[in-house]
Amino acid sequence: MQIHSDTITGRFAPSPTGALHTGSLVAAVGSWLMAKSAGGRWLLRMDDLDTPRQVAGMEDDIMRTLEDYGLEWDGEISRQSRHLDRYQQAFEQLQQLGVIYPCCCSRKEISQTASAPRPDDDTLPYPGTCRDGMRPGVPVRSWRVRVTDEELCFDDRRRGPVCQVLQQRCGDFALRRGDGEFAYQLAVVVDDADTGVNQVVRGDDLLASTPRQIFLQRLLGLPQPGYCHLPLVCGPGGEKLSKRDNLVSHQPGNSPGREGRLLWNILGFLGQEPPQEMFGAACGEILQWGVLHFDATRIPLTGGELRLS
Ligand code: GLU
Q: Using a 6 Å cutoff on CB, does residue 14 contact ligand 1?
């Protein structure tokens, strides 16, 4: 089912593999503000396809944390694990287009033939070994989509025009594992379209994936959302934070005003300037200021450290 509507619809799509960290909270706040300041809806989706990496209780922790910060979502929470039939349909649609092929290459084999992994997202460009058929008698490790050498461009609200040639950047990328599990790239495209998401706001770490998603949208005949990739939170020396750093978890005993201080700092991190006297105020009050004053053109081009108090 596709919802076609002019209403701005944003979303936050955490993977329940751990508690939120400050970087994911920035994505939650940024996407909430961008949707709400445009009078839009903001959906919450659990990206729970990667079952072995899931941690019990984390979905609940994420929901409670969002509530602690006043980030209310609209409608029911959706879960990728419940949408497997939709991914199957999209996969079959692509198979009918003749753009999918089975691949037997292991990561190790790809790393021996591919150029070096991309430093920004670890992607090993797939050299196309199985494009014209797999060697006989070996199991299927993944199903890949055939990409082209065309330059694919989109306009990022913060970064401006971003262009990529998929053939060089990632090569034919995997949509499904040999054991049947669907890949993030396919699932995200199907889900965003099915739920009418037309505004994707998320961290810069996913910027490099966006052309892959647009490529799939075009093949599947789905609308292309607007994109805004937010600056990343780094450590004091500009280093990338690991997923374990700066966890923000729901803790009933948190000191009063803690959320209001972090939220105020997140708005500052996003280039907004909430009044000084709002530092540590109730989250609802800070968010209300944000809805009225949010200006996406002020989001800085570079990330940095996020003050925690
Ligand atoms: N579930 C993904 C993550 O937590 C984000 C998906 C998205 O925003 O497209 O990294």
A: yes
Percent of the chain past pLDDT 70, that is, above it, reads: 94
Give residue 261's domain range: 9-81+196-206+225-298
- Do both 173 and 108 map to the same domain? yes
Asked whether residue 202 falls in the same domain as residue 71, the answer is yes
The reply to whether ligand 1 has any atom less than 6 angstroms from the CB of 230 is no
Name the residue of 58, 190, 206 whose CB sits within 8 Å of the most ligand 1 atoms, as the mutation to test its pocket: 206
Q: Which atom of ligand 1 is found nearest the CA of 203? A: 8
172 and 40 co-located in one domain: no
Same domain, 59 and 91: no
Chain centroid offset of residue 161 CA: 19
The answer to whether the CB of 161 falls within 8 A of the CB of 153 is yes
The answer to whether residues 269 and 135 belong to one domain is: no
Structural domain contains residue 140:
yes
Asked if residue 212 is part of any domain, the answer here is no
In the prediction, which pLDDT does 54 show? 79
Stretch 120-149: mean pLDDT, rounded?
90
Whether the predicted model's global pTM rises above the 0.85 cut? yes
Query: What is the pLDDT at residue 2?
Result: 47
Mean pLDDT, rounded, for 218-222: 98
Please tell me whether residues 244 and 105 are part of one structural domain.
no
Q: How many domains does the chain have?
A: 2
Looking at residue 55, its pLDDT comes to 84
Position 1 confidence tier, pLDDT thresholds 50, 70, 90: very low
Closest of 121, 211, 116 to residue 159, by C-alpha: 211
CA 282 – CA 222 distance, rounded (Å): 40
For 165-198, what is the HEC assignment? EHHHHCCCEEEEECCCCECHHHHHHHHHHHCCCC
Question: ∠ at Cα 159 (155, 162), nearest 5°?
Answer: 50
